[in-house]
Amino acid sequence: MPLSMYQASVPVFVRVLGVLSKVLDKGAAFAEARSIDPSVLVNARLAPDMLPLSRQVQIAGDMVMRGAARLAGQEFPNTADTEKTFPELQERIAKTLRFLDGFTAAQIDGSEERNITVKFGDRSLTFTGQDYLLNFVLPNLYFHVAAAYLILRHNGVELGKRDFLGM
User: Fold this and answer.
1) Distance between CA atoms of residues 122 and 51, nearest Å
2) Which is it for the CA torsion 45, 46, 49, 55, positive or negative?
């Protein structure tokens, strides 16, 4: 049986956000155990021109909400991106998971050839649904989750490959 667009999207999004949540739990526990102000980790970045941990989490959430909605031909909510603490970031993930839970396979399957246009200021890119999922949404999701993982790992949080893979 071929892999459907739904199977390649929503369950993957849910799993990866679950991994991100567990990674954030480890970051919060690390800060508490070492009496580190959690905002140090939430605002940490790997390079001066890189977005901080908080934005990595926000973008990962936005990517999957917009991805699922666009594949289903629906509108997506705009988010304020104001989370500044581990609990607020966890609530952001929970809110994203609740949003994803509202999609069914019937809404997303068959979107392989749907034209999807993504706007970036005055620029836009148009994809087929399959290209959008495989070449834009999933790579961006993994990039931002990996960045969040690496920011915490770089700051001493004991994380390994199994944490990133959710094993």
Assistant:
1) 22
2) negative
Q: How far apart are the first and last CA of the chain?
A: 26
How crowded is residue 6: how many other Cβ atoms within 10 Å of its Cβ?
21
Domain boundaries, the chain: 5-159
CATH architecture of 5-159: Up-down Bundle (1.20)
Closest by Cα among 59, 83, 21, 69 to 143: 59
Cβ atoms 57, 89 nearer than 8 A: yes
CA–CA distance, 4 with 71 (Å, rounded to integer):
12
Q: Position of tokens 């148009």?
A: 126
105-134: pLDDT as tens digits:
999 999 999 999 999 899 999 999 999 999
